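User: what does the whole thing look like in 3D?
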Amino acid sequence: MPHRIAKQIHNEILDKDNFLLVAHQNPDGDAASAVSAFSQMLEQMGKKYTCFCKTSVSDQFEYLKNIHLFTSNPEVWKQKLDAVIVFDSGDLPYAGIDTFIENAKDTMIINIDHHASNIHFGHHNLVRDTLSSTVEVLYNYFLVNKIKINADMATSLLTGLITDTDNFSNGATSKEALSMASYLVNKGAKFKKIHDYIVLDKNIAILQLWGIVLNRLEVHEKTNIVYTYIKQDDLLKCGVTEEEIGGLSNMMNHLKEGNAIFVFKEKTDGNIKASTRTTREDTDLSKVAQLFGGGGHKKAAGFEVPGPIDKAIEHVWETIEKSELIG
Ligand SMILES: [Mn+2]
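Assistant: Here's the predicted 3D structure for the full assembly of 327 residues, as structure tokens:
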């Protein structure tokens, strides 16, 4: 029962004093916002906390309260911690903290998430894969535990909701998600500010890169998956950074054709990262991602395979065809 777990976790928090809040590496709006909102609750309660992320957090989220407190300094793991709270992460390697946890074996782990592929790695697991976002899980947690949601907290929660529903356009946009949005706007969430930072985030160079990538669209016939790829060279040519290329697979999800969309991206280490999206009810991409050690949701998932890019793509098709999960 999710309500019982939310109350159990809150009792642990009332009882303890010093927390480490973790957003997964390369945090998206959901992860960054969840930490921001939760840190504000801890402040209300007079608790101590540190916000940790293994990588840097995008400037795009600079308007979120307490976002400037994020550190990637591993030294923070050496303090006496009463609990580590991990947000929006299906497992500890995805969060980027598996090695830190190995050295902090006695520390309580609290797992707050909505990924279908979540492996329940915590001592407490508040995982609700029917909800749109981790911030929606958190919103329910706040209501169940009668936490006051102030305007800054509402702005954080609404940010995660807008990013994970792709601006209220993807399959996660439930009636509960919409009613949560309305509640948060009533509490003073700054809708326009979020829109300015989150939706108006493209520049000409990014759209030129999208042009190259969209030109390469192809259909893999046996699985009817529509796909394209981005190489490191493309980024250099257009002057676009890794961080800036998010959003392409979400945008491609507006396509009517095909069973799914796959975007393959060559990373600096030579590995190939695949972002996958579908709008079809009969396709479960979290299962597909798990074939390659990745994870995610039914309608949006990701995984990594070794390069080079043409070999990687070939390997992906072979594996998916064998699995018969799509097509
Ligand atoms: Mn999420």
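In plain terms: The two ends are 36 Å apart (CA to CA). The pocket of manganese (II) ion is lined by residues 30, 88, 114, 133-134, 164 (CB under 6 Å).
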